[in-house]
Amino acid sequence: MDLIAARLNKISPSQTIAISTKARALKAAGRDIISLSAGEPDFDTPRNIKDAAIRAIEGGETKYTDVAGTPALRQAVAERFRIDSGLDYTSDEIIVSSGGKQVIYNAMVATLNPGDEAIIPAPCWVSYPDIVALADGVPVIVPCAAENGFKLRAADLEAAITPRTKWFFLNSPCNPTGTAYSAEDLRPICDVLLRHPDVWIFTDDIYDKLVYDGFVPATIVQVEPKLRDRTVTMNGVSKAYAMTGWRIGFAGAPAVLTKAMNKLQSQSTSGSSSISQAAALEALSGPQDFIADMVQAYVARRDLVVGMLNQARGLTCHRPEGAFYVFPSMEGCLGKVSAGGTEIVDDEAFVTALLEEEGVAAVHGAAFMFAGHFRVSYATDTESLREACMRIQRFCAGLR
Ligand code: PLP
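Structure tokens predicted for Aminotransferase:
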């Protein structure tokens, strides 16, 4: 009898984590490596948030909490949804989990039966297809062309819906493209969804505070309140408050679903860390000006990276509305041979040769279900970004 369950063969380890691990190993071996592969802010968690966690420890908030999250945190989440997007959720419609990732996992495991389909616009975050597959569902990938700013067209969504469709995922701003949807962009998508009352919607808004140039993000329920009864609005503290290690994510959803997710969570994690919840409470209800400072830094970095990548021979890089990623096309490099002798047969060969020859770690597009591109995270300091982009330019100039 095999030790490892068959279900584990349906998924692969996160490729972004694999590349970051390889970059770290090269660095440990003494190589000069700049990693643009991580999906986390380089900023430290703000002082007031850390202090709240310390106070929680000292004050004895060290016990189990309600499985769905402390009443105070759920209320603060509801309040943030109200202030930020005009959404109205009661406390029993809010669930707090160990990261947004666990919210997604809970929702899928709680609802998918074998063969149920989940529509995922691509490029997409690496974990959606794997989590769906782990929950016995079938990921249905819908490509979104670069020419359309990587945005999903309503007609493509309509064409992907079948009688087996249970979920539709939307991630705005998007990892890996940074593409964000305005209310106007979402309208035709909502119109399609209104015509298909059996489809549930999972909107992952985890980057919605990181938007630039005055862009106003929107979320599904805000644009079409009639979809509220079948939408999960997910968010978290990882990206907006530089709190990836604290592992707090949350969602607003109809009580029928939060109840099911709560049941699952009660037999898996028993809920999130009490200390992290106290920190997240301060993040959501304390001063928010830290976010504007971060946004200002990110926008300058985005402009630097987009400008420099567009000067690299064979690359084309769009200027996204949000998050901290760009997703340039490397199709102009295909078929060439690098200075180190690697034939660039695809995006994976490109990032592998780039790491080995120039010490720059990025993630190939195929990991995000979209070949011919690669993802650069600009959540790192300006000097490293400038040096990394210079090396990418040199690498591309060396292709023959
Ligand atoms: N959703 C997207 C699109 C992400 O990029 C990430 C993290 O990289 C997450 C969700 C999960 O974040 P966390 O589990 O840290 O809340």
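The chain has 13 helices and twelve strands.
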